[in-house]
Amino acid sequence: MKITGRHMVITPALRQHVKAKFERLDRYAVPLSRVEVVLEVNKLQHAAEAVCVLGGKRIQAKTSTREMYVTIDQLVDRLESQLRKLKDRRAEHKKRLKGQPARAGRPVPDEAEAIEVVRPKLAVLSRRQAKDELDAKPGSLMFYTCADSGKVQILRRTESGQVVLIDL
Q1: Does CATH number 3.50.50.60 belong to domain 2-97?
Q2: Which ranges of the chain does DSSP label H, i.e. alpha helix?
Q3: Which of 61, 81, 97, 142 has the fewest beta carbons closer than 10 A?
Q4: Which fold is adopted by the domain 124-167?
Q5: DSSP string, 87-105
Q6: What residues does CATH 3.30.160.100 cover in the chain?
Q7: Model confidence at 95, in pLDDT bands (50, 70, 90)?
């Protein structure tokens, strides 16, 4: 751990406080290969910046307050939240490798209920042509590619007989 001071002298008490606060990061069991802390005083503002390298990833945090000890505490809190997110991402990634679905909200379909994917070719029509080809029955749908915009659009006939355009 490298602790540097800009426009200030790093006292043994300040150095001990930084080391004690950074020991909190050990509970995340993430090997930090390099930690650099820069403490700075600019008029009445005390600023702190930390750069940590772990496994090729760089984590950085900055903060400033009117008191150096509070600044160091906030700096460690910010680094801690970044490490927690990184560790959660790694744990989540490992779960997916073990065969769990990528999104927990979507159930994986069983072999028995396999879904057939059909990609029909849509006709390129103007809105007027699509409306003319739409069935007169309520609830009828017409999928087509709009000749003007090139977008896939849907025409639907409502229960009252009105034609509604759904633009995707």
Answers
A1: no
A2: 12-22, 68-97, 127-133
A3: 97
A4: SHC Adaptor Protein (3.30.505)
A5: HHHHHHHHHHHTT--SSTT
A6: 2-97
A7: low
Q: What are phi and psi of 165, to 5 degrees?
A: -100, 130
User: Rounded distance, CA 71 to CA 68, Å?
Assistant: 5
30: left (phi over 0), alpha (psi -120 to 50) or beta: beta
Mutual angle of helices 12-22 and 68-97, in 10-degree steps: 20
Amino acid letter, 11: T
**Side chain identity at 127, as an amino acid letter?**
R
> Amino acid letter at 151?
K
Question: What would the pLDDT profile of 70-81 be if each residue is shown by its tens digit?
Answer: 999 999 899 888
Residue ranges, CATH 3.30.505, the chain: 124-167
